[in-house]
Structure formats: C-alpha cells, structure tokens
Amino acid sequence: MSDKKIKVTLVKSVIGTKQSHRATVRGLGLRRINHSVELVDTPQVRGMINKVSYLLRAEG
Predict the structure, then answer these.
(1) Are residues 47 and 22 in contact, defined by beta-carbon separation less than 8 angstroms?
(2) Residue 26 belongs to what H/E stretch?
C-alpha cells in the first residue's frame, strides 16, 4: 500500500441531503463548510468521495 493522501474539502452544505450522504460526509471527518481533511487514498475512501462528490472538492 502507498501512503498517498487526498485533500477533501466540504464546499456545499449538507442541509437537505439524504441522511446516508450526511453520514458519509461525517465519516470522511468533515464538519463544516470549507473544512478540509487529508485522507489516505484507499478504495473505501474513494467510494465515499464518489458518493458525495457533489458536496466536495478533492485534490491530489
């Protein structure tokens, strides 16, 4: 496994989204708009990012 990182930023509010999408955003460690976290690039994290990609900005 490589230790590549992905920087993920919440750019849209979770208000009005599905409960499962809110849970996914929280699972990624994002708390508020413009909050960023660096996550290890794994297939599980990629799947979570793809699920709520309309709320996020992902880099690197």
Answers:
(1) no
(2) helix 19-27
